[in-house]
Amino acid sequence: MKIKPEIPNNALPPLPPNREIVESKSVLRQESKAAVALAELKGIANTLPNQSILINAIVLKEAKASSEIENIITTHDSLYQALIAKSFKPDSATREVLRYREALFEGFNFIHKKGFLSTNGIIKIQNILEENTAGLRKLPGTVLKNGATGKVVYTPPDDKNVISRLMSNLEKFLNEDDTDDISPLIKLAVQHYQFESIHPFYDGNGRTGRIVNVLYLMLKGLLDIPILYLSGFIINNKGEYYRLLREVTFSNKWEPWIIYMLQGIEQTAKDTIGQVNDINKLMNNTINIVKEKSPRIYSKDFIEVLFEQPYCKIDFLVERMKIERKAASRYLQNMEEIGILKAKKIGRENIYINTKLFDLFKK
Ligand SMILES: Nc1ncnc2c1ncn2[C@@H]1O[C@H](COP(=O)(O)OP(=O)(O)OP(=O)(O)O)[C@@H](O)[C@H]1O
Ligand SMILES: [Mg+2]
């Protein structure tokens, strides 16, 4: 039966698709490039002395990028201010991006604790993201429209039994061992298509699906820490993203969709390796400067705080280094004098910004 954009797609086939269709020669070629880049990223991330530095920075960047696909726009500066300054009143976009960040962390904790990703886990992620408890769609009426023309481009299943059945099928596909031998990176592309096509929620399906992507990489042991995100790639190739999703649905063309996702993984892994190297270099530079100009203040812990918290304040040092407020304040002022930090007043609080690091994150 022919699928029509305006008719709910209750006949969406369960996974897996036919192996011959998803595993063409060109898919396999691109898959090995993506796998190599990803393995290199995994190795390099393990060389970092302090992994929360990288996780903090990259998660926030992802929260911003993924939300931007939905036209929720804020700045890095607002995000950091909202995270640390008590008097700062974030606007609604900033609050929404911070909820995305929270939802991501919820997902990592879920995977860590349970070792699998269930439909309930996914519902919890969406619930934090959207701040509502509606859960899976029960009522019809959800359609996907072209943002510019308003034309309906796809109507997901509207039968709640179909949605719940397809979600159980997806859950199995996500968690089962790879006995069928399809590479996990190819499966990543397949599950993302499926999740978006089921479109299980009233809203937040794109963002929730992009969170599921990174959780899947962790689930399959392809990454130890959550640092590979495709949102930047998707923003830069958004038209393709939407078009290729439709090609799977309406023409059963899996190949270009899977290659697109694999290229995204390869490119993003390479970019992220560059970022890890940049952060490492800057950290070593900073260590050298502080050792030379302020040898009495230098400690490994101190430098690490300045990199974990690109917007730093006295409280962070007091807590982390177990020092007095007065000493903490002196340390931070000294860092401003030698050009490592820049002070900024937010309300009554003094905030110290690691500007070089902050500029790296914005890139
Ligand atoms: N033709 C399509 N078939 C299946 N899924 C699609 C199609 N076009 C877009 N999508 C998915 O639907 C998402 C949008 O759905 P929804 O508005 O529920 O999510 P969101 O997180 O609020 O928005 P966004 O993804 O724009 O950030 C897109 O990001 C994409 O992943
Ligand atoms: Mg939306």
Provide a brief overview of the structure.
The protein has 16 helices and five strands. With 363 residues, the protein is mainly alpha-helical. The N and C termini lie far apart (47 Å).
Overview of this structure, please?
The protein has 363 residues and is mainly alpha-helical. The chain folds into two domains: 19-275, Fido-like domain (Fic-like fold), CATH 1.10.3290; 294-362, Arc Repressor Mutant, subunit A (Orthogonal Bundle), CATH 1.10.10. It has helices at residues 19-22, 25-45, 51-69, 76-84, 92-114, 119-130, 160-175, 184-198, 205-219, 231-236, 238-251, 255-293, 300-308, 314-321, 325-337, 355-362; strands at 144-145, 152-154, 311-312, 342-346, 349-353. The strands form two sheets. Strands 3-5-4 form a three-stranded antiparallel β-sheet, with helices on both faces. Strands 1-2 form a two-stranded antiparallel sheet. Strand 1 (144-145) and strand 2 (152-154) form a beta hairpin. The radius of gyration is 22 Å and the shape is elongated. The N and C termini lie far apart (47 Å). The model has no long low-confidence stretch (mean pLDDT 95).
